[in-house]
Design brief:
single chain, 221 residues, alpha/beta, 6-stranded parallel beta sheet, 6 strands, globular
Length: 221
């Protein structure tokens, strides 16, 4: 029987790479984007999960790669709207999508992988709301791993510079110990590993080329 995966945020650069890699690995995949539901709203998160379970015949894996609110802004200029944009999809949406998927994953002995960010571990002054949202999401990885054990494993992938804006490649490469940027495919490979790592739960796999090893000033934009 083919394994079944829902990739929330599956139309973005990272999410689409994850969905493609899972298909290559033999999964049946529903890759959901913005048009498939507003994950800030619990009812729509539940509807997406139920649609995926119905179309795929159940769920073995949920990958949550949805996010919003990643835009540089000084702390003094951050608005309530900026804060909500960062927290709503990244943390609130992640929680309620996982909550909805939990019964299906308990039934199959499945797994959840949250796509986090090294911003969970680094204080970036120009990305206060984003850092806070990703830190909240990283804690959800651990909370949900305890809450859903032993039937469901919950892990995180924390990418560094893997979806870099044009013109930023050299600058971001200099921030990593390996001296280069990564790609969404590097994140996809980590997701596949965690999806099959039956004795791994409640942890985040950092995929950053050694960015967290660097001791220089944090990025500002």
């Amino acid at each position: 029987m083919r394994r079944r995966a829902l990739v929330a945020g599956g139309s973005g650069r990272v999410g689409s790479a994850v969905a493609a890699r899972l298909r290559d690995e033999g999964y049946s995949v529903l890759a959901a984007g913005r048009a498939d539901g507003d994950l800030r709203r619990p009812a729509e998160a539940r509807a997406l999960v139920e649609r995926a379970a119905s179309e795929l015949g159940g769920l073995d894996l949920l990958v949550y790669a949805a996010g919003d609110g990643f835009a540089p802004k000084p702390v003094a200029e951050v608005t309530e709207a900026d804060w909500d944009a960062a927290l709503d999809v990244t943390a609130k949406g992640a929680f309620f999508t996982c909550q909805a998927a939990a019964p299906h994953l308990r039934a199959s002995g499945g797994a959840i992988v949250l796509v986090e960010d090294v911003a969970s571990f680094q204080p970036w002054p120009s990305f206060a709301a984003h850092c806070a949202a990703k830190a909240a999401q990283a804690m959800l990885t651990r909370v949900l791993a305890r809450a859903l054990a032993p039937e469901v494993r919950v892990c995180g992938v924390a990418p560094g510079s893997v979806a870099v804006e044009p013109g930023q490649e050299e600058r971001r490469a200099a921030e990593a110990a390996l001296g280069r940027i990564g790609s969404p495919d590097d994140v996809a490979a980590a997701v596949v590993y965690l999806a099959g790592a039956s004795f791994v739960t409640g942890t985040s796999l950092v995929v950053d080329g050694g960015r967290l090893l660097q001791s220089g000033a944090p990025p500002t934009a």
